[in-house]
Amino acid sequence: MLRLDTRFLKDFPEVLKAHGTALLGAQETLLAKRKDPGAMLGWMDLPEDTETLREVRRFREANPWVEDFVLLGIGGSALGPKALEAAFNGSGVRFHYVDHVEPEPVLKLLRTLDPRKTLVNAVSKSGATAETLAALLVFLDWLKRERGQEWRRHLVLTTDPKRGALRALAEREGLRAFAIPENVGGRFSVLSPVGLLPLAFAGADLEALLMGARKANEVALAPLEQNLSLQTTLLHHLHRHLPVTVFMVYSERLKYLPAWFVQLHDESLGKRDREGKRVGTTAVPALGPADQHAQVQLFREGPLDKLIQLVVPERPTEDLPLPEVAGLEEEAGYLFGKGLFRLLSAEAEATYRALAEAGQRVYTLYLSEVSPYAVGWLLQHLMWQTAYLGELWGVNAFDQPGVELGKRLTLALLGRPGYEGDGSVEISS
Ligand code: PA5
Questions:
Q1: Per the domain annotation, does 44 fall within a domain?
Q2: For residue 121, how far is its CA from the centre of ligand 1 (angstroms)?
Q3: Cβ of 180: how many Cβ atoms within 10 Å?
Q4: How confident is the model at residue 402 (pLDDT cuts 50, 70, 90)?
Q5: What stretch of H or E contains 211?
Q6: Which of 229, 311, 207, 164 is nearest to 31 (CA)?
Q7: Which residues are catalytic?
Q8: Statement: residue 366 has pLDDT above 90
Q9: Strand ranges, E, within 73-146
Q10: Is the minimum distance from the CB of 368 to ligand 1 under 6 angstroms?
Q11: Residue 423 located in a structural domain
Q12: Which strands, in side-by-side order, build the sheet including 118-124?
């Protein structure tokens, strides 16, 4: 369950009514594109895809020997699985993410892994991402050396159903390859096999995760008063003149969720609109309570240039009572007998009030608890919010032209044939 609290944004209910027509207009334009495969709206249908869920489960059951799961992928191909696995890993399988190209950590990982117990999952929608291809080269070579004829059993691919180097490799070598639907882009793919496959090995409740996402779909299409996605969309739209949007999560289990949100928000919305005007707000990740001892100083007393969204669980899935310890009554007596979760809630509430009191624009999204159902709902809700904002801001939330130049320059610097001309850039003043 997800609940929006706008108590410090006093006139919000009236403002919501006043913007009803614009919001419903954005919704209508977005939904009108649903049947167009090029519109990349396939993420809306992923929560209903029970066939993929079955396939993923069958694959997990067929491979009970896996003790280490190595995901090779970057951006949308890694951030979602990493966030969810950190929250819901209950299987004891160890997860490793090669979402970088720094040699030392890769070497360290290779030295610690037991190849007989390791499953490598290379994830790339395009099959053309240099970081992922480099990692694949390393791990393919390692598996062939360590496992000989058996190497195929240790490699599973997640990629486009038809195109790209990974799909071609799967076909040539007879490898198991899961499909990311053509109309689903990287940062919207967490509920495709990109996330579901690793999470099956993590032992997460996938059915509940997808059920939560289905609920988000229902809510995102509900009338305005019940439509959480249009409501938070409006909060971001109204504050688009503030350059920063903070995403602060009060859950250690969800510590990688802000990174997932940052990518979703920034890569989808930071671009030129139809008139060529630069638009977007910069999402900043934050974690409570750790950042109360770091970023919150700035959030409270620094510039009033932010919309701050707090994500706070309302109850624990399991609590830890704080024991009484003799000799610590004076300093810690107020904690004795309380659950640890009570402290977490009090800190979130205190931050909420302190930020509002300082004049920052702040709202809270309460999660009933950190469960697959509630988090599935949250993820899908944030995807709707992003898509609706794309309509309101006049940008295509599903492309990333700004990423392309950096990719081309990298290939030019590495001497890939056909990219020679991309080696120099003109710096515009
Ligand atoms: O959201 C996106 O499209 C990107 O962040 C991609 O996920 C990222 O660039 C990796 O791309 P690919 O999955 O094609 O390797």
A1: yes
A2: 15
A3: 25
A4: confident
A5: helix 206-220
A6: 229
A7: 267, 293, 407
A8: yes
A9: 94-98, 118-124
A10: no
A11: no
A12: 94-98, 68-72, 118-124, 155-159, 176-179
d(CA 165, CA 177): 12
Please indicate whether residue 400, judged by its CB atom, sits closer than 6 Å to ligand 1. yes
Q: Residue 266 pLDDT > 80, yes or no?
A: yes
Amino acid (1-letter code) at residue 262: V
235 C-beta closer than 6 A to ligand 1: no
Q: Are residues 192 and 325 in the same domain?
A: no
The tens digit of pLDDT for each residue in 101-136 reads: 999 999 999 999 999 999 999 999 999 999 999 999
Residues 245, 355: one domain?
Answer: yes
pLDDT digits (tens, 9 = 90+) for 158-214: 999 999 999 999 999 999 999 999 999 999 999 999 999 999 999 999 999 999 999
CATH classification at residue 168:
3.40.50.10490
How close are the terminal C-alpha atoms of the chain, in Å?
48
Say if residue 159 is in the same domain as residue 236: no
| Tokens found for residue 233 | 């969309």
Enter the tokens of residue 314: 């309302």
Tokens 């240039």 appear where?
305
- What are the tens digits of pLDDT across the range 213-264? 999 999 999 999 999 999 999 999 999 999 999 999 999 999 999 999 999 9
Ligand 1 atom with the smallest distance to the CA of 180 is: 13
Nearest atom (ligand 1) to Cα of 132: 15
- Can you tell me the distance from the alpha carbon of 335 to that of 324, in angstroms, rounded to the nearest whole number? 8
Domain membership of residue 240 as a residue range = 2-32+208-401
Q: Is residue 424 part of a domain?
A: no
User: How far is the C-alpha of 397 from the C-alpha of 29, rounded, in Å?
Assistant: 13
d(CA 175, CA 166): 10
Quote the pLDDT of residue 407.
83
> For residue 267, which atom of ligand 1 is closest to its CA?
1
Looking only at the bridges linking them, the beta strands covering 176-179 and 361-367 are unpaired
DSSP state of 339: B
Concatenated DSSP letters of 372-407: HHHHHHHHHHHHHHHHHHHHHHTS-TT--HHHHHHH
According to the model, what pLDDT value does residue 342 have?
98
Confidence at residue 423, expressed as pLDDT on a 0 to 100 scale: 59
Q: Is 205 exposed, middle or buried (0-12, 13-18, 19+ CB in 10 A)?
A: middle
pTM: 0.96
